[in-house]
Amino acid sequence: MRRFQQNDSALTEKDIIALQIGFTVNKQYRPYKILDAEHKILDLVAQEQYEEAVKVCDSILAINPLDFIALMEKSYSLMKLQKPEASFYREQVMKIIRAV
């Protein structure tokens, strides 16, 4: 997880898949519990409330650093806010996409 959160370029697609599978045994992993928060993010982005969307993304990522919607929408929101760290999260999204 540390390597993923640091955007380690040496992580392979198999590493990402193993990380996702391994995280499912984590007590924090409750995908259905965060559905409302994920929908809120999508609504905020649709309303162009990017700063608030980033906050909700952060609350999800604190629980599940691999949450695809939170990573994708955080990257997009940061890009719309013209924040340079958008590319950091875009790369995490791309790692997951390539692995899947």
In words, what does this structure look like?
The protein is an all-alpha fold and 100 residues long. Helices cover 68% and strands 0% of the residues. It is built from 6 helices and no strands. The relative contact order is 0.16.
Radius of gyration: 13 Å
What's the overall geometry? Answer: globular
Looking at the overall shape, the CATH architecture is Alpha Horseshoe
Structural class: mainly alpha
The total of beta strands comes to 0
Order of helices and strands: HHHHHH
Strand content: under 5%
- Uncertain regions: pLDDT < 50 for 5+ in a row? none
CATH topology: Serine Threonine Protein Phosphatase 5, Tetratricopeptide repeat
Helix tally equals 6
The N- and C-terminal alpha carbons lie at a distance of 17 Å
Number of domains: 1
The biggest beta sheet reads: none
- Average pLDDT level: 93
CATH hierarchy class name: Mainly Alpha
Helix content: 55-70%
